[in-house]
Write a structure and sequence with these properties.
Elements: H1 7-17, E1 23-25, E2 49-52, E3 65-68, H2 70-73, H3 89-104, H4 107-122, E4 130-136, E5 139-144, H5 149-157, E6 163-165, E7 169-172, H6 180-195
Parallel strand pairs: 1-2
Antiparallel strand pairs: 2-3, 4-5, 5-7, 6-7
Helix pairs in contact: 4-6
Amino acid sequence: MIPPDGYLKQAADICDRNNVLFMADEIQSGLGRTGKLFAYMHEGARPDVLIVGKALAGGFYPVSAVLASKHVLGVLKPGDHGSTFGGNPLGSAVARRALRVLIEEKMVERSAENGAYFLEKLKTLRSSRLKEVRGRGLWIGVELNERARPYCEALKNEGVLCKETHDRVIRIAPPLVITREEIDWVFERIKKVIES
């Protein structure tokens, strides 16, 4: 679900007025997935604490991070908090390089452009089974009026991997390197499965 416009900004303002930290979990939505570096940037609702992972190392190494200002994280002193896998030098190096590639290859911008292209194509689907198509960047949901799993299985048989979520939604989250030609190929298979 995409929150209505203004939702995150209102949440951040409520937190600010009540001296509560506004924390954003961008493990799935961050690092270009929604067509912005982070999803909160669609509204400018800057969080006090940002949690990132998954794409942080470009899929090559398990890395996650908690980002915050010195004012917030400065309450922790050495030894106050620990992590079994925290401070991994290899993970940090891989993450730094992955971030460089994300920026240098303009993957965030491509996510916005290709996501809009894909969403526009998906909105041409016509079926009584289809309730709604929504998305931001390359994070798209195709909501059905019935269970999504059989459609995901049919798509798998067509060579398209996707995941059902919330029982009735086909979640489409291709890699940020997807091309227009690949989107066209995927769309034809989705159209075949949804409309047939």
